[in-house]
């Protein structure tokens, strides 16, 4: 085990690396002096481990002894036979303490902690008896939240990490965009970047590669890795291939209202099973459903759901001949809005408004040059709009039009960069 710990902690011997800018880093830094356990959740490959390693660099830069910081990725073959024994985490800690003999407060980072059953029992015992700052990461939303709520209530601070935002994407590309002058000076580069981001999303490794075939291969590998490592074993699913087929089929249904009965007939299973499987996908951050708005909570729960994927790149591996840019644009607006409003919903009653959030109605249209398209979007606003509600029409790059009757028009980059 000592060899593994040395391998996973290169900062003990060498200066830590510098990583790409992430907006969540400032929040992480603000949590570091506190006693509470920091939990970082998010889909696999979104950068949770990297964010934790950014904390390592920060702590060392601030003067902490590098050997006072332990990083362990728990999804290692060495740990496989012990995953049902949380006491083995104590052996990992004891091996580290013997190896490094740290003096004073230590920081312990357990990456993908859900790999160990009942990990929270170990964390709670150390939280109360040792001078250890824990940072834990996990790729499973309900597993982390439910188990934290039972044993670690009041002892955790959570950061949910998404794939790269458009602003982070521009930082990575080296395109300045902090103010209007920079955005105007770099408008051509931003225009090229937003097309790339719309199509391929924000997974870092996908961003780094130019070849679209390899990009698709990576996205397919991410999806299958999540299905076969996080869903199938945890929920003891015997027909794993059915879960995979359902995932790819649902990608083609993204931005649409779900019909559970039709899905059940297509996959020859019950409505209940379909709903459970989609819940599993939500649990690992592959998809998210939103409700049709209703003033009564019970009616919202019973309403038909619309489906979205949590990174646009996955749309490129959907079983279809060519990407739908309108579908991709609506999904991208969803990704932006859902991070800011957990109660995001849509509105449908004869006509439909794509999103309703914090007294604002959002319509998404890739372009509005067509009179029929424009009138459809505007008529939906008129149907639903109440006093004190705003209306925003999001396009890819259409110029604002006169006479829109209190409708604010934004291009997708203006929305994503909060330029309004």
Describe this structure in words.
The chain folds into two domains: 2-161, P-loop containing nucleotide triphosphate hydrolases (Rossmann fold, 3-Layer(aba) Sandwich), CATH 3.40.50.300; 168-416, no CATH class. By secondary structure, it is an alpha/beta fold. Helix 7 crosses helix 9 (187-200) and helix 13 crosses helix 14 (271-283). The protein contains 18 helices and twelve strands.
Mean pLDDT level: 93
Unreliable runs: none
Structural class of the helices, strands and pairings? alpha/beta
Sketch the major β-sheet. 7 strands, mixed
Evaluate the radius of gyration. Answer: 23 Å
What is the ordering of alpha helices and beta strands? HHEHEHEHEHEHHHHHHHHEHEHEEEHEEH
Morphology call: globular
Query: What's the end-to-end separation, in Å?
Result: 53 Å
The domain tally reads 2
Walk across the major sheet and give the strand order. 7-6-8-9-10-11-12
**Percentage of residues in DSSP E strands:** 15-25%
The percent range for helix content is: 40-55%
Count of individual helical segments: 18
Number of distinct beta strands: 12
Domain AAA: 35-170
Protein name: ATPase
Domain DUF4143: 229-359
InterPro entries: AAA_14, DUF4143, P-loop_NTPase
